[in-house]
Design goal:
Thiol Ester Dehydrase, Chain A, six-stranded antiparallel β-sheet, 6 strands, 15% helix, elongated
């Protein structure tokens, strides 16, 4: 599904076990969903395993409650020799609504691993091993 934020990589419903002690969706759960989606995009684009080596720039501009749907979008922002940096955005949607609100963003860097679990050189999965706009 095309979206300004990138490819739709995860769609999941927040459950009671995903809540913090205050009744809102736990930020750590949101971060893990963003990471899972980003890893999926790297693996799909490269054909290799992808392990996260860095995570930065997290924001949580909105809130979710149990039963809300989380839609995670991801796009490649940089390709290196053996790594990819992925920008992610998560949007929450109340169960009985079509309106979405941005609830989380973050940036992840992954290293691609070959069958020997060693860093794998990326052979221009996007046409160039440079910054991507």
């Amino acid at each position: 599904m095309e979206h300004e934020a990138g490819d739709l990589v995860i769609r999941v419903t927040a459950m009671p076990t995903d809540l913090n002690p205050y009744g809102g969706v736990f930020g750590g759960w949101l971060m893990s969903q963003l990471a899972l989606g980003a890893a999926s995009l790297v693996t799909r684009r490269t054909g290799f395993k992808a392990v996260v080596v860095g995570a930065t720039d997290f924001t949580f501009p909105g809130v979710m409650v149990v039963g809300d749907e989380l839609n995670v979008y991801a796009r490649v922002s940089r390709v290196g020799r053996t790594s990819m940096t992925i920008a992610t955005r998560g949007f929450g949607r109340a169960r009985a609504s079509e309106d979405q609100v941005e609830v989380a963003t973050g940036t992840f860097t992954f290293v691609a691993l070959g069958a020997d679990d060693r860093p794998q050189r990326l052979s221009d999965p996007l046409g160039a091993a440079t910054e991507v706009s």
